[in-house]
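Morning!

This is the sequence you dropped in the shared folder:
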Amino acid sequence: MSSGKLRTGSAGLMFAKIAAMSIPLRHGVFLAPFHSVNENPTLALERDLELMVHLDRLGFAEAWIGEHHSAGMEVIDSPELFIAAAAERTRHIRFGTGVVSLPYHHPLNVANRFLQLDHMTRGRVMLGVGPGLLASDALMMGIEPEVTRDRMEEALDVILRLFKGEIVNETSEWYTLRDARTHLRPYTRPHPEVCVASAVTPSGGRLAGRYDLGMLCVAAGVQAGFDALDVNWSVACQAAADRGATMDRSGLRCVVGMHIAETREKAIEQIRFGAKEYIDYLNNNQPRFPVPPGTDTVDWIVEHKIAVVGTPDDAIERIEQLQAKQGEFGCVLIQAVNWADWEATKRSYELYARYVMPHFDQANVNRVDSWAWVSDHQNELVSKRIEAARLMTEKHEAEQAALGRR
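The structure's back. Tokens below.
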């Protein structure tokens, strides 16, 4: 599909029509974030806030913010605090927690904090939940990683009941609720959208189907997550069917790493800024990207298609591959990886907004049709313009002659 260069020719050549989708595709980002351990963390967080403003201006629909407490690079400990600040700087973009690690928090605290945020943002928030990705986070809190998925399920059930206005009495091995209710009712009715993280295991799909939740497919851009997409969606659909319901595809979100530029060569060169440190960081947590010793990390990323590193056409092709595998889904989320420097990063999102979004929105279909219609009728239109000019000239000359003017 892609020639390796950004296609900026005539509109009739640049945009191809795509089949009409019943679900409009939204576009957003998934910000863990990943910041070099060598840079100023205060400035890195400020840059993340500036990115939210940039995305808001470009028309991105969503931004999901992570929670992590260890390991070095993922420096946002409270997505709610970040969202509160970002919402003050932006106008349209919606924010999600990507995710609140439920086993680390008392469920009443999560419900109350999030409903406060729902009011403060006038309903521009979504609650994403998960068990916690980093084993080092759990171990620091004295939590064994093996129990986090069960605890997430327990906490999620309580939070949803609290969101619905229930008074909850419940005791587990790690929390107690006595006549517990939220202090605020939701600003968003009936309550903010809730999504559950889904990677490779079926746990996210089971919960999404059981509770009618959205799904955050956080590993859709890597092979194992991509391979599990349709399987986990089937698990969710079966769980929904067991309670006589169907899953809503608009609540399904797929996370993909992307850095794009005007040419593939330029994009590849730009990610040399930070791609190796990112891969080293992930492998330090849990070896998953087996780059052979002596191999160039960037070349390995490109060869194994760990992310889209290329042009807007390459981004379009990857998204269409996701749609072919998964079927329609609601939102593609670009994983914010800070592989390139700040200016190149902003430019990547700009190119995405300029050329990838309109492809899926079919924003230029009427313009392309208009261009084509004019091309098809060019001879007729030229001849009519010439004839109109001739008639006007003759009319003017006749009027001047009638007045005795030459």
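Headline: The first strand starts at residue 26 and ends at 31.

More detail when I'm at my desk.
O.
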